[in-house]
Amino acid sequence: MNLKYRKTIIAGNWKMNKTLSETRAYAEALKPQLGKHKWCEVVLCVPAVNIPGAVKLFKDTRLAIGGENCHYEASGAFTGEVTVEMLKEVGAKYVIIGHSERRQYYNETDLTVNKKVHAALEAGLRPIVCVGESLEQRELDVTEELITYQVKIALAGLTESQVRRVVIAYEPIWAIGTGKTATAEQAGAVCSHIRGVIRKLYGARVARAVTIQYGGSMNAKNAAELLAQPDIDGGLIGGASLKPDDFMAIINAANQEA
Fold this sequence. Notes:
The protein has 258 residues and is an alpha/beta fold. The chain has helices spanning 20-30, 51-57, 84-89, 100-106, 110-123, 135-139, 143-155, 160-164, 184-202, 204-209, 223-227, 244-254, and strands spanning 8-13, 40-45, 64-67, 94-97, 126-131, 167-170, 212-214, 234-237. The chain starts with 7 loop residues before the first strand and ends with a helix. Helix 5 (110-123) crosses helix 7 (143-155) and helix 7 crosses helix 9 (184-202).
């Protein structure tokens, strides 16, 4: 973390988990533990049907609610999709874009990621843009080339002020939901590379301002070590965010002056 230049953001990604009643129980368990979390911002990205309820449940806290996906069009014949304006109107502040599961199962591409980033920013939402390599790609030693390609396309056409509002989440695909985690040094090296790509595109000031998260199975036990890396500014948390105590432990790991 580098608190001098940017905010640390701990974001939960619930994926396809929790009903509204389960969300209510979760809020009752988490809210008493939430302090001012001075050093970090806390976000929960929940299923779209739970967003209005989650916004109400956490309205008296500083925790922000986000969506897990969006469409890049403002309206149209896209059955089952959600627009950025729909998310904004029900109180979402963030939206995850380009998660590997969206890419794998729903044909998300780097070009559609870019379109969604533009749509989210124009609506006033902060996009959390996911990038990452498979185990095969890592073993072929093309991680940096792939990440460079993903970041460049995701940010294509954005102004400097827009890039400052983008959050990049490095999620090695081989570490998502597998229990495997990149070492702190491996994760830190890729996040540093991402910042370097942004520096070449937009200059040092913009690069210093962008929050870069690690999202490969960060948990209560490894969060502090990962967050100690200078270019890891938070986490996009999957399974651990479903348990209030575990999620709070990660928040606490980020909630310290570095």
